[in-house]
Amino acid sequence: MAETSVLIIDDEKENVRYLTTILEENGFREIYSAFDGEEGLKKVKETSPGLILLDLRMPKKSGISVFNELKKSPDNQDIPVIILTGEGGFLKHLAELREFHEDGEGLEGKPTEEILSRFIAARPDAFLEKPIEPEPLMATIRQVLITLEEVQEKRCNEVNNLRSQKLLSGVVFKGNSFESDETSRNHLSAVAAKLAAPNATLPDNFGWRTSDNKDIPMTKEDVLAFQGAITDWVYNLYDASWKHKAAIDALTNIEDAEDYDMTPAVYCVYVPPL
Q1: pLDDT per residue over 156-176, tens digit each?
Q2: Are strands 51-55 and 6-9 parallel, antiparallel or unpaired?
Q3: Which residue of 25, 115, 145, 156 has the fewest CB atoms within a 10 Å radius of its CB?
Q4: pTM exceeds 0.70 for this model
Q5: All domains of the chain, ordered by start, with CATH?
């Protein structure tokens, strides 16, 4: 995200410096500025920004005109635009003067973004009213710039983390809790592998240590059943995570990826039969 170039179009130099500082503090390095609408359109051609922060009320050419020209241009219509304005009252007054309200409906109480929609040719990617605070600004920028691929990658990593947590959460056998970390599973696999040999037996009074350091007696049949149940449980966890990631990768919009439910019953701790 921070690799994106940003163009700030605002006639107030203090605002530009303020916004530039916020962006720099959050890792953005390629930041351009313009101080009126005409200069802003020139800078768009010169810099091909990945994001535009656009003020509305400016000399020479208003932000409304700039926005409409951008959205009518095949070369620029896909550039994300965040509109920044403190001109809610101005827009309301202008809309009423020009009788943009429908069926005589008054504009009292209408949000500024709704009033703005009466003047612009397309919906902006986001809208923030001044004064702009750093956290809402950065949250809005992240929301605008984040891609489906980034959300998918994040959710797939969350699936991996959930699987890892479940693998470490322990399992229950004969009413006792046992560790399920990789070392414990490897030890159990080694014992079970030896028992698979013909005529293999366990030492007398063989036991397996619980998570609270008690030795629970186990027969050969117990060990093999325990190992089989653990193997099935681990496989089911990996199988579930593979299916989750395939489902996430197949999603086609950010909202579905963000809302994806990755906690089905298959992730529950497996309890082997007694």
Answers
A1: 999 898 888 888 888 888 788
A2: parallel
A3: 25
A4: no
A5: 6-145 (3.40.50.2300), 150-267 (no CATH)
